[in-house]
Known about the structure:
Largest sheet: none
Order of helices and strands: HHHHHHHHHHHHH
Number of strands: 0
Shape: globular
Amino acid sequence: MSRRGLALFAMLGVVWGMPYLLIKVAVESVEPAFVVFARVALGAAVLVPIVLARRQFHLLRGRWRWVVTFAVVEITFTFLALTWAEQRISSSLAALLIAAVPIVGAVLAHRFGLDAHISRRRIAGLAIGFLGVGSLVGFDVTGGTALSIAAVGITVLGYSLGPIIVEKRLHGIPSLPVIAAALAINTVIYLPFGILMWPDHEVPLSAWSAIAVLGLVCTALAFVGLFLLIAEVGAPRAQVITYINPAVAVVLGVVVLSEPITLGIAIGFPLVLIGSWLGTRSGPVVEAEPHP
């Protein structure tokens, strides 16, 4: 991986390890749908004017169908599902379940022809990773949190499909107009919820600050970085940022929110990371052309 790829990888690993804590702080004071509205609206408010000034929206001509698809798959349902789930489960558990993204992404990348080689090592990695997720769910899930785990599953699927849509259908388009359009689309989708669920009580500064960082840093900045990383290393390997995300999220959850390190986390975390590492490693390339 190039120095540019490593820098983007490290930046995204840290930046996307923060949302779990920030979401947890925000949903203690406001409704999940309002958090999503504020998050996407802030991101759009930053990126749309830049794209308009650069006159780049015309670059999406002929691709709008896939821009809308990306917006819905990567943001619309995933953001709401994760935010809703964090009202009921710890930020650490949510982050560790999201760590299954590289595993699901590896399977989908193979299915859609982005990564043709599946070695025995990678199959073993996928099996270990799924065992790790099973450990997280089996030890940490009770009847009251089962729906939350299912909601996080929606987020995992969306986060796995999003980069594949980018690489297969939006490849070669600058990142700014795509993500600005996706955030603007979701701002329109969530506008009614933002109006109806605008808090009618005093919201602490900590919640507003969490929402602001979510929108400006963990959405606007992070999505631009994601597109750059996909262009640099490809969609399957871009998803490996989730090696770092859960570690950052667990540390923040334990240090800032005093969340416990449960038996499920202790067993499942290393299994998920080992499985993701093995499941997304490249095998010997003998029949496929090098990835551009």
